[in-house]
Amino acid sequence: MALTSAAAVSGPAYCKATLTRQIGALDDVLSVGVNLNTGRVTVTTTNDPDDALLAKVVDDAGYKLTGRAA
User: Fold this and answer.
1) Who has greater pLDDT, 1 or 50?
2) How confident is the model at residue 13 (pLDDT cuts 50, 70, 90)?
3) CA quadruple 50, 55, 58, 60: dihedral, nearest 10
4) Which of 2, 6, 16, 41 is the most exposed place for a label (fewest CB within 10 A)?
5) Helix H segments across 1-70?
6) Beta partners for residue 42, in sequence order
7) Separation CA 53–CA 64 (nearest Å)
8) How far apart are CA 30 and CA 35, in angstroms?
9) Which long-range contacts (C-beta less than 8 Å, at least 24 apart) are formed by 16-21?
10) CA gyration radius, the chain
């Protein structure tokens, strides 16, 4: 069963490919949608997402995970 979650991010609005590639490389990630204009990242995974790992990947890419999006 696939699970989709949304996260809020902040940072430079110029390189969604970086976030898409970095998050997409994580285990269990099926798809990634990034909209830097709205600061929203949608991630579909095969299991519950690892929020701490997601935050680290987002931070390493030069952005900040600010929490789950509604």
Assistant:
1) 50
2) low
3) -110
4) 2
5) 16-24, 51-60
6) 6, 33
7) 13
8) 17
9) 18/61, 18/62, 19/58, 19/61, 19/63
10) 11
